[in-house]
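Quick review question:
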C-alpha cells in the first residue's frame, strides 16, 4: 500500500546482482570443491535456486547476511525436475552447469516472467555444437553427451541466457569454444570472472566474441563477490526522479548505469556519478524523450517498465520502443487505471505527458512491471494498492523497506 507524493531523500545501498547470482550459484557446481560467494541478494529467486541445488546434493551454508558457502562435492544427480524449477527462468543455467559436470542433464523446461515467446533454441544450438544430443520430452529438457568438444558457436540473436549456458558447458569441454555475437551484459563478465577464479580460461567476456579453453578440472577454495545489481540501482534512480527527490545510490558501478544516466540527463534530471555511487536529484520539469531498449550497453529492457511510469510526468509525448522482447507492455493497462495516457502499437509505447497519476488498485504482472507499479504509486495522489507482490520479491531485496528508509509512505498489508 503506497500513499504517494512523498519526495525520496537520503541514501540507499544496492544489493548483489540477481542476474549474476542466478548464474554464479549454478556455476559453483562445476567444481568438486567449496567456494564462498559474497554479496548474494536475499530474494525469492535465490531461495528457490538454493533449494534446487540442495536437492541435487550441494551443501549450502549461510556465512552471514549476504555470504554463502557452497560445497559441491556431494552433488550426485544430474536431474533437476522439482516443481519450483518451472517457476524460475534462470533454472535453465542448471542445464549448462550439469552438462559441464556430468555430460548429462535433465531439467524442467524453464518458466519465468511472461513477455511473449521465450525460446531456448540458441541454448540448444550451443549444446549441440559442443556434441550434446538434446531432446524435449514431457516438459523436460534432456541433454546427453558422450563427450563435450569445444566448437565455434554463432548466436543468431544476442542472448544473455544462451551466452551464459554455453560458457557453463564449454569450460569443461575438450578444446576451444568461441561464442560469436555473444551478449555483453555486466553479469556475463561477472560469471567469467567467477569461473576464471575456479581455474577456467575465458577471454573476451564483455565483448561480442568470447573464447573459452576447456579444462578437465575446475577447483573450489576461493571467495568471490557478486557485482551490484544494475537494474535495482536503475529502479532507485528512476524512483528518485519520479518523486522529485534527492537520493544517493551507493554500492554500484556507475559505468553500468551510463545508458540510463544519459537518458535521465536528457530528461533534465540531475545525475552526479562518483566512484561507486550516483546521486540523483530532480528540481526541473522532466522533459520528453525517446528510448529504445537494446542489449547492453544499450538501454536495458528490464528498466523499460519503470521508466515508462516516469515518462507519464514528462512534458510532451515520449516514445519507448522495446527492442528485446516481443510483448513487454502488458503492464500499461494497469498504469491506465491510474490515469496514464499511453498507447501501445506493437513494440512501441507512446506516452503522453504530463499526467498527474491517481492511486488505484493495481497488479504487478511480472518482476519489472511490479517495479513500474511501485514507482507509479510513489508518483500518484492518494492510495495505490499493489497486489501480486511475490513477483517483486523474486528480484528486489526489501524494496519496501529501502523505500521507507528514503521517506516513502509504503507498507505491506495482508
Ligand atoms: N532468444 C531467442 N532464442 C534463445 C534465447 C533468446 O530467440 O534461445 C531471444 C528472446 O526471445 C529475446 C532475446 O533473444 O527476444 C533476448 O533474450 P535473452 O536470452 O537475452 O534473455 P534471457 O537470458 O532469457 C535475461 C534476463 C532478463 C532480461 C534479458 C535481456 C536472467 C535470468 N534474465 O533473460 O531479465 O530481460 O536477459 O536482458 O538473466 C529480469 O531480470 O526481470 C529479466 C527478465
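Suggested answer, residue by residue:
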Amino acid at each position: 500500500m503506497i500513499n504517494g507524493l512523498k519526495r525520496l531523500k537520503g541514501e540507499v545501498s544496492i544489493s548483489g546482482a540477481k542476474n549474476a547470482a542466478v548464474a554464479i550459484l549454478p556455476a559453483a557446481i562445476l567444481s568438486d570443491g567449496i567456494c564462498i560467494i559474497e554479496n548474494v541478494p536475499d530474494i525469492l529467486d535465490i531461495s528457490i535456486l538454493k533449494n534446487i541445488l540442495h536437492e541435487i546434493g550441494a551443501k549450502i551454508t549461510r556465512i552471514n547476511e549476504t555470504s554463502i558457502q557452497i560445497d559441491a562435492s556431494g552433488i550426485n544427480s544430474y536431474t533437476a525436475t522439482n516443481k519450483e524449477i518451472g517457476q524460475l527462468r534462470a533454472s535453465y543455467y542448471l542445464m549448462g552447469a550439469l552438462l559441464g559436470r556430468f555430460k548429462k542433464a535433465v531439467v524442467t523446461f524453464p518458466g519465468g516472467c511472461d513477455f511473449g515467446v521465450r525460446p531456448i533454441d540458441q541454448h540448444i544450438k550451443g549444446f549441440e555444437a559442443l556434441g550434446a544430443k538434446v531432446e524435449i520430452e514431457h516438459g523436460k529438457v534432456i541433454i546427453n553427451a558422450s563427450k563435450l568438444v569445444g566448437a565455434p558457436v554463432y548466436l543468431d540473436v544476442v542472448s544473455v541466457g544462451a551466452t551464459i549456458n554455453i560458457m557453463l558447458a564449454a569450460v569443461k569441454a575438450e578444446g576451444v569454444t568461441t561464442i560469436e555475437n555473444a551478449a555483453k551484459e555486466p553479469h556475463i563478465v561477472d560469471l567469467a570472472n567467477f569461473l576464471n577464479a575456479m581455474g577456467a580460461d575465458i577471454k573476451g567476456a564483455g565483448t561480442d566474441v568470447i573464447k573459452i579453453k576447456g579444462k578437465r578440472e575446475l577447483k573450489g577454495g576461493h571467495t568471490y563477490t557478486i557485482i551490484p545489481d544494475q537494474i535495482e540501482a536503475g529502479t532507485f534512480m528512476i524512483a528518485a526522479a519520479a518523486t522529485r527527490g534527492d537520493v544517493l545510490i551507493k554500492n554500484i558501478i556507475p559505468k553500468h548505469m551510463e545508458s540510463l544516466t544519459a537518458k535521465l540527463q536528457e530528461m533534465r534530471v540531475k545525475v552526479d556519478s562518483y566512484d561507486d555511487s550516483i546521486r540523483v536529484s530532480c528540481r526541473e520539469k522532466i522533459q520528453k524523450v525517446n528510448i529504445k531498449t537494446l542489449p547492453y550497453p544499450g538501454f536495458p529492457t528490464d528498466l523499460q517498465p519503470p521508466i515508462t511510469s516516469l515518462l507519464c510526468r514528462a512534458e510532451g509525448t515520449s516514445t519507448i520502443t522495446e527492442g528485446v522482447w516481443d510483448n513487454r507492455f502488458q503492464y500499461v493497462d494497469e498504469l491506465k487505471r491510474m490515469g496514464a495516457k499511453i498507447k501501445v502499437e506493437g513494440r512501441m509505447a507512446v506516452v503522453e505527458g504530463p499526467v498527474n497519476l491517481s492511486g488505484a488498485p493495481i497488479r504487478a504482472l511480472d518482476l519489472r512491471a511490479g517495479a513500474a507499479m511501485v514507482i507509479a504509486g510513489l508518483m500518484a495522489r492518494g492510495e495505490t494498492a499493489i497486489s501480486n507482490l511475490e513477483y517483486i520479491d523474486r528480484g528486489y531485496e526489501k524494496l519496501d523497506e529501502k523505500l521507507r528508509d528514503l521517506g516513502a509512505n509504503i507498507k505491506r498489508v495482508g
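Why it works: The chain is about 30% helix and 25% strand. The mean pLDDT is 96.
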